[in-house]
Amino acid sequence: MLEDQRWAAKIFSSGWQPGSGTLDVVEPATGALLGRTGLADAADVAAASAAAAAAQPAWAAASILERAAVLRRAAGILEQHLAEITEQLIRETGSVPGKAGFELGLALRTLLEAAGLPGLAQGEVLPTAGDRWSFARRIPIGVVGVISPFNSPIVLGLRSVAPALALGNAVLLKPDPRTPIAGGVILARLFEEAGLPEGLLHVLPGGAETGQAVVRAAEVQMISFTGSAATGRQVGELAAAQLKKTHLELGGKNSVLVLPGADLARAASAAAFASFFHQGQVCMSAGRILVPEAQHDEFVELLCAAADRLKAGDPRLADSDLGPLIDARQLARIESIVSDSVADGARIRTGGETAGLFMQPLVLSGLRPEHRAWQAEIFGPVAPVMEYRDLDQAVELVNATEYGLSTAILGDVGTAMRLADRIRSGIVHINEQTIDDEPNVPFGGTGASGNGTRFGGAAANLEAYTETQWLTVRSEIADYPF
Ligand code: NAD
Questions:
Q1: Strand 358-359 to strand 347-350: parallel, antiparallel, or no bridges (unpaired)?
Q2: Are strands 406-410 and 254-258 parallel, antiparallel or unpaired?
Q3: N vs C: which end of the chain shows fewer Cβ within 10 Å?
Q4: What is the dihedral of CA 224, 228, 231, 232, to 10 degrees?
Q5: CA-wise closest residue to 426 among 445, 449, 443, 453
Q6: pLDDT tens-place string over residues 61-90
Q7: What is the pLDDT of residues 399-415, one digit of tens each?
């Protein structure tokens, strides 16, 4: 898949082409150079967008069997090359094998679910006041722009690319410049090998400028963006000025709420997973852990013990539970959030030692709502714990954030169900931690976590990647008074 190097120093735009420059791809665990992709500038994006628009009508007119077959073949190729793709994902993104397996399992299911979409794009026959037939039918959007982040680059690209292609669109994909092989080249190779006709998928690695060019490109009618709230706001503003449809999936400040009487050992294990999995670099990572006053001290001890059992190290080594952070900028940001909070009175209970980009999982207690570690999305292996007085205060604390992505409630199910009714969150898990996804569920957040759009499932994907056309038909030309 990657070994023939046809992609090296190239962008994927009507075949493998030189871009305006190249991007070095560095392994965060070792600093080794993993490869080099092409870099796309605004002119590359404009050319790709025009080529995509030219290729798209024939794809939209292609048989639903042909479109489904491309998606099914891409799934087969992913399975066939799973070992190689897993290795690349581990090295390029610093994912331990368990995280890579979770991501690639989801990616495979995403392709298989998308293979069913061409046959599901059904419309409606509408009642009408006229002497005619009236229909609502689904038509592709045209050219879709996809901008994806570094943390789970394969599945977070595919969850837009696969349904968009399945439903007859062409796609421009801009992966994060730190993960352009996993987030870009691998997707291009999957669809190239699957026989997707040329011009329908363009992979355009680059940074903010390339992303902006994708949003601006004349033929791009929709943007599917996954990334931080700050960038999402900019992308949303730029797209809105051009009246483009925008799906924004942004960050989170997700809570694990431990109920009175919950099994504390299990709750601590769930919270540790929610805060430390993939070094906390998941939009659904828990950045707030709420525990009843009476159980707080015992819980913190259990959470610290769980943190101490984890080891951050090269994700290719069997004893590493956590891999490296993606880069030095992320590490510096995490450290500044922790040190500001400590200066304001929070206490580090364990962890936080660093070596290169590796950081031991850190437990913070003594937090107050105004502390930076309680307010900001940390995107690092940090578990801030706060005690609460009663359930009303707990709900108030959970809701006191601009984000609203994922919430976990641990303990008595009846109490948890009543609280779930009061929590503003796109996702609520009872007796599970905050991080999960399946390609057939409506995934998405509220507030600063996104603009209310959903990924996954036929209904959300049809809504996202098609337009509805009203079509009327009479057997003869109608009579008019003019
Ligand atoms: P980011 O917003 O910095 O980058 C995301 C993507 O946007 C990258 O491809 C980047 O190159 C591009 N980009 C940056 N500036 C741009 C601009 N001005 N115009 C257009 N594109 C631009 O995000 P990050 O910090 O690298 O990723 C982590 C963030 O993503 C976290 O906030 C995380 O919560 C969020 N995330 C959300 C989900 C979700 O499904 N809700 C999933 C994963 C990650």
A1: unpaired
A2: parallel
A3: C
A4: 40
A5: 445
A6: 999 999 999 999 999 999 999 999 999 999
A7: 999 999 999 999 999 99
Contact 312, 280 (CB under 8 A): no
User: Could you give phi then psi for residue 35, rounded to 5 degrees?
Assistant: 160, -175
126 pairs with which residues across the strands? 134
Q: Whose CA is nearest to atom 32 of ligand 1?
A: 228
Calculate how far, in angstroms, residue 78's C-alpha sits from the geometric centre of ligand 1.
25
Residue type, 372: R
- Determine the distance separating the centroid of ligand 1 and the alpha carbon of 148, expressed in angstroms: 6
Residues with CB under 6 A from ligand 1: 147-151, 156, 174, 176-177, 207-208, 211-212, 226-228, 231, 234-235, 249-252, 283, 377, 379, 405, 445, 450
Kindly give, in sequence order, each residue whose CB lies less than 8 Å from that of residue 193, ignoring residues fewer than 6 positions away. Answer: 1, 73, 74, 77
**Phi, psi of 423, rounded to the nearest 5 degrees:** -100, 130
pLDDT band at 266 (very low <50, low <70, confident <90, very high): very high
Mean pLDDT of 417-440: 97
| Mean pLDDT for the stretch of residues 206-212 | 98
Atom of ligand 1 nearest to the CA of 149: 5
Mean pLDDT to the nearest integer, 91-99: 98
- Ligand 1: atom nearest CA of 147 is 9
Determine the Cα–Cα distance for residues 446 and 260; give it in Å rounded to an integer: 27
DSSP H helices in 94-185: 97-115, 153-166, 180
How many angstroms separate the Cα of 94 from the Cα of each of 31, 124, 128, 378, 466? 11, 47, 57, 17, 35
Pair 333, 354: CB distance under 8 Å: no
Ligand 1, atom 30, lies closest to the CA of 227
Place of tokens 């960050």: 251
Residue with CA nearest ligand 1 atom 26: 149
Tell me, in angstroms, the distance from the centre of ligand 1 to residue 225's CA.
Answer: 8
CB 254 within 8 A of CB 407: yes
Q: Which atom of ligand 1 is nearest to the CA of 174?
A: 9
Taking the C-alpha atoms of residue 38 and residue 17, their distance in angstroms, rounded to an integer, is 8
Paired sense of beta strands 33-39 and 21-26, if any: antiparallel
